[in-house]
Structures are given as structure tokens and as C-alpha cells.
Amino acid sequence: MRQFLIKMLSFSAFALICYCLILPIWSNLIPFEAFKKNMNYKIGGYGHMHSRMQEIKSIKKIDVLVVGSSHAYRGYDPRLFAESGYTMFNLGSSNQTPVQALALLRTYMSRLNPDLVIYDVFPGIFESDGVESSLDVIANETFNWHTIRMAFQVNHLKTYNVLVNDLFVEGLRINRGFKEPRYKSKDNDSYIQGGYVEKDKDFLRNQSSLSNLFWSPRNDQWKSFLEVEQLVDAKGAQFLMVRSPVDSSYYHRYSNQDEISERFKVVGDYIDFNDLMKLRYKEDLYDRHHLYQSGVDKFNKSLINIIKQKGFIR
């Protein structure tokens, strides 16, 4: 029995090593698309995460750091904060969950040393497993211990595949000449210095009818969210949770709105801008929960005024 277990462990170790070697070779060096169907490795994909990760390397001390999903990087404009004298960087990414936000903050919080961290708490991100966002972060962020730790926390085969592939790609510098375009016509997106992405004003996403939902955050995501708050507090920064404005029909699809608000208020400072302003789809939003620039202007100006009034930045 002992000999059998030793052989099984030896074979498993050998198979794992072979898998880790064959996987990136098939994905990058063999010119057959069939080998790539299970490898979701997209450098410079939707949302300009590559540009964001390249720019942040040159950023040092800032006043405000923003994290969250697409509602973060499409909803907080560094140009508007600069008009009020604040330096801001937007560290949001597509479908970013608290697990990814925690990994990114562990990497950059000390160097950026913000006075205020704004977390855009779009409720849906707390119900996600974080797999899609993990692929985006690993492919576009420099390989480091915090992304490895994040991958093990997500614990999904797709994430492990991308992690192994990224080590291979970065080690051989396969994408060293890659430059992400500032404007992507297929996405109708422009990357703005400071991590923000502006959508074309003539873009409109058709929306289907909505069903009612009951918000039920995943335990692992809520745990990571609380760790984010603890990390920010330990670094001596203010922590502000913001629920950015959406179309009222989308906002009211959650049947337990009061529970959502109360849960965030227990953690700390929380502002729901849907209580402060009414923005509408097709006027200030290009879908029911993402803002046009006109909506961003209204939202950010109101937010900046509150930041000043309440002294969130020393």
C-alpha cells in the first residue's frame, strides 16, 4: 500500500509538471486555435486593464484611489477630481470583486499612499465567483505574489491555466512589444490618463426587461471586502463606500434594498447616490447601470462636494 501511494504521488507530481509545461506551449507556440479554446488569456482585453497597469507603475503619491468593477473605471473621472485640486487614480477593472480588489490594494496601497480610498460597491460584484475578473487581472498585471495568492483564493481551473500561462509569457517576454490603443472603436471606449475609460456619447446598449432580484453576497467575497476595509484602515487612509447612480428601474430590481444599505453602513462611511440624484437610461446612462460622460460629470461633482464638506481628505 505504501509503495502504491508513493507511485501515485510521484505520477501526480510528474503529470502536474508536464501539464504546466505543455499548457503554455500549446497556447502560445503551436498555431492551432483548437489548442487555445480553454485558455482565456487576453492581454489588453475589454476595459483597458493593460493600460491601467502600465500607467500605475509611474504613479506615486495620490489623494484618492478608486477600486471596484466597471462602474468604478467608467464612473470616476480623474480630470474632474483634478479640477478640484485632487490627484486620483482609478484601479477598477471589469467585474472586479473584493478578492481582486484586495490583491491590487496589497500590491499598490503602500506606494500610492492615498488619503482616501473609494470603493464602488455595486451589489452584483458581491455575488460573483471572481473568475472572469481574475483572468483579466492576471493577464494584465505583472506576475507577483499577490496575484498568485488571489488565484488560489478563486480556486478555478481557468484561473490556474491563465496563471501558468502568464508565468511563461512574462518569463519569455512574448508580449514585450504590445501597446494597447488608447481608443478602441469596437468597444467605443477611450482610455483617459488616470485609469478612467470614457464611452462614446453616441453609443447606446439596448436593454431587455428586468426581473426582480434578492441580494445575497457570497461569504468569501464579503470576507475579502472586510479585509479591504481593514487594510485601508491599517495604512491610515479614509475608506468611503459609494453606490454610484443607476437607472431607477435597475436600482429597484433588488427587493431587499434596505438590507443592502444597512450592511454597508455597519462597515463604515457609505453613500448611496441613488438617494441623492435621479439619472435615466438614454439620457445619462448608455445602459441601465453605466454612465455616459454627462452622468459622470453630475455624479462626480456631487461626490467631490461631499468629500470636501465632510473632510475625507486631510
What do you see in this structure?
The protein is globular, with a radius of gyration of 21 Å. With 314 residues, it is an alpha/beta fold. Residues 7-16 have low confidence and may be disordered. It has twelve helices and eight strands. The chain starts with a helix and ends with a helix.
In spatial order, strands of the major sheet run 2-1-3-7-8
The helicity comes to 40-55%
String of helices and strands: HHEHHEHEHHHEEEHEHHEH
Distance between the termini: 67 Å
The overall average pLDDT, rounded, is: 87
Radius of gyration: 21 Å
**Stretches where pLDDT falls below 50 for ≥5 residues?**
7-16
Given the helix and strand composition, which structural class is it?
alpha/beta
Number of strands: 8
Beta-strand fraction estimate = 5-15%
Name of the CATH superfamily of the largest domain: SGNH hydrolase
**Overall number of structural domains:** 2
> Helical region count?
12
Shape: globular
How does CATH name the architecture of the largest domain?
3-Layer(aba) Sandwich
Supply database-style keywords.
alpha/beta, Rossmann fold, 314 residues, three-stranded antiparallel β-sheet, 8 strands, five-stranded parallel β-sheet
Outline the fold blueprint:
Blueprint: H1 2-28, H2 49-56, E1 64-67, H3 70-73, H4 78-83, E2 88-90, H5 98-112, E3 116-120, H6 131-140, H7 145-154, H8 157-172, E4 183-184, E5 189-192, E6 196-199, H9 219-234, E7 238-243, H10 248-251, H11 257-267, E8 269-272, H12 293-310
Parallel strand pairs: 1-2, 1-3, 3-7, 7-8
Antiparallel strand pairs: 4-5, 5-6
Helix pairs in contact: 1-8, 2-6, 5-7, 5-9, 6-7, 6-8
